[in-house]
Design brief:
Length: 266
Amino acid sequence: MDAEIGIIGGSGFYSLLDNPEQVELETKYGKPSGPVSLGSIGGRKVAFLSRHGPKHTFPPHKVPYRANIEALDYLGVKRIVATSTVGSLDPRYGPGDFLLFDQFINATYGRPDTFYDESKIVHVSVAYPYCEDLRGVAAEAAKTMGIDLKPTGTVAVINGPRFSTKAESQYFGRAAGANVINMTQYPEVVLAREKAICYLGIGLVTDYDAGLEGREDIKPVTMSEVLQIFAKNVDKAKSLIGSVVPKIASSRSCACAKALEGATSG
């Protein structure tokens, strides 16, 4: 029972796997969001986990992030490909666009966000939180497929489950410099780094958050709008992942693999 690549996304991505087998796991941090589906994509062993649960029962602030990453690590996962819906704070990123995260700004609170909060103190570097190698693979795959994908983007991560006020949206975009906003990228990407797992974050823009400054024609986001744009683009996202996974190198030479070297204090 093992896998080399993990996929985290919505329940609509189950169909990606060939002949999946579901396994129930228990970790020291509790159960993950749901059963882990083990299967293959393009001959690669893959583990899929629905971030919010198979029936979307976990809100963003209650997703068992530590249990999810711990479960994938237990299965032998060394790379994670994760999809997230995001709201745009930048007119250059419009609904229906895809992007690869390269930076995040954390504005969450109260979420357990480290595996090292007991006897061992570890300070991992997250100056560059997203795997550069995986981003390169994804950008090339999108180009080959003719998918318009922006290779970089800073994501502001808020606690949720509510959407932003207009002032908050303007702050994260104008003052903080974020391009998009989301509720689940933190602490998921950091926990992966603490396990020395490479992490690729693919964002699907579904809306303009609280609207755009100076654009009265663009209204604040509604959940129905998010679901509508996601439904239109989920097949494209699945195709992109299906193309990325077989192209991932079997060995690693990126900094993620050495994330724990020299990170222990004392």
